[in-house]
């Protein structure tokens, strides 16, 4: 169980700094230093600096999802500092106010802190040397020559490039939430769906059809999903509609389910009639079948990093 502490650092000897919005490959290297360690903690900010300054309006992981990952990685404590309270502190003032009792500090090489982010690794090294602190600076992680960053991952998600997002995250991008009732059109045409509203907190992919997997407390495995407004039926609400070919599922409204994205198959399209739509869905099923092995592998990757019981709480 991860303990969340607001604006207080007590009895902690090792701190890992970061926003950890996505728990990508670089974040996981930082977090490995405190996995299973007593008197250690993640130190982060709320809201995240980029959110407070208006540079970002969505997250790859919600707070609850981050905690699920922290729990699986052996993090025992998360300390949240109110960004409004610390944003105007000079770098040395920030360090002296919050980190005097900490013995070891872990950061990434691009870490910045203090008013207007003027504090850098050079200043932090000098302060740690003077104060007798240990400092661990992890280099940035690269994949295929590209530096892993939350900004890059969000860009790939916005483009629908889920394969590349997976490569930088180390797990498939996903959405989770309570099942909501739709208008039952899917059931009437032989394509019953499990519907989710898209959380405003989560980074949005483009409208269209994807293959990936459904995780639920009833059944888990490969599934198709359509994200958008179902233009064939002139729906106004934006939904993620999850369809599991050949499986008859009963998942009650309000039950938490998760959909993991493998890849973008096609754009959202208005078909002339329901028959034409169903014919296209049958073709989409062939793509899903081709990708099944990769999808199952990615589902396993997700469950290695995130605690399943935490992601899918029982009602």
Model description:
It is a single chain. The chain has helices at residues 25-31, 49-52, 63-72, 83-86, 91-98, 121-131, 150-159, 162-169, 185-188, 274-290, 292-305, 308-311; strands at 3-6, 14-17, 40-46, 77-82, 104-108, 134-138, 142-143, 146-147, 174-178, 194-197, 208-215, 220-228, 239-243, 256-266. It has two domains: 3-146, HUPs (Rossmann fold, 3-Layer(aba) Sandwich); 173-311, Riboflavin kinase-like (Elongation Factor Tu (Ef-tu), domain 3, Beta Barrel), CATH 2.40.30.30. The mean pLDDT is 94. With 315 residues, it is an alpha/beta fold. It is 32% helix and 24% strand. It is elongated and about 75 Å long. Strand 2, helix 1 (25-31) and strand 3 form a beta-alpha-beta unit. The longest helix is centred in the last third of the chain and has 17 residues, at 274-290. It contains twelve helices and 14 strands.
How can the largest sheet be summarized?
6 strands, parallel
Detail the poorly predicted runs: none
Distance between the termini: 19 Å
CATH homologous superfamily assignment of the largest domain? HUPs
Average residue-wise pLDDT: 94
- Number-wise, the strands total 14
Helix-and-strand structural type: alpha/beta
């Amino acid at each position: 169980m991860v303990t969340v502490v607001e604006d207080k650092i007590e009895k902690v000897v090792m701190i890992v700094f970061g926003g950890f919005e996505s728990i990508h490959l670089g974040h996981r290297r930082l977090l490995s230093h405190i996995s299973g360690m007593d008197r250690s903690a993640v130190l982060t900010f709320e809201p995240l600096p980029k959110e407070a300054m208006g540079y970002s309006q969505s997250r790859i992981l919600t707070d609850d999802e981050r905690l699920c990952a922290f729990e699986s990685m052996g993090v025992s404590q998360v300390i949240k500092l109110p960004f409004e309270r610390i944003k105007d502190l000079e770098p040395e003032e920030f360090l002296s106010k919050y980190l005097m009792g900490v013995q070891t500090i872990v950061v990434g090489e691009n870490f910045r802190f203090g008013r207007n982010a003027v504090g850098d690794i050079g200043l932090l090294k000098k302060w740690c040397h003077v104060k007798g602190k240990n400092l661990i600076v992890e280099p940035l992680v690269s994949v295929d020559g590209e530096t892993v960053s939350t900004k890059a991952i969000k860009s790939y998600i916005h483009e629908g490039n889920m394969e590349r997002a997976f490569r930088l995250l180390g797990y498939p991008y996903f959405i989770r939430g309570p099942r909501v009732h739709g208008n039952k059109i899917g059931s009437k045409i032989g394509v019953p769906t499990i519907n989710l509203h898209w959380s405003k907190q989560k980074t949005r992919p483009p409208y269209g059809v994807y293959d990936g997997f459904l995780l639920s407390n009833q059944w888990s495995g490969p599934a198709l999903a359509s994200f958008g407004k179902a233009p064939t039926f002139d729906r106004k609400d934006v939904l993620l509609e999850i369809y599991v070919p050949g499986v008859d599922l009963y998942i009650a409204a309000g039950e938490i389910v998760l959909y993991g994205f493998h890849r973008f198959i096609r754009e959202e399209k208005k078909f002339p009639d329901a028959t034409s739509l169903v014919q296209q869905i049958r073709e989409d099923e062939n793509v899903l079948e081709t990708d099944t092995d990769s999808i199952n592998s990615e589902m396993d990757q997700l469950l290695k990093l995130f605690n399943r019981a935490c992601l899918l709480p029982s009602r």
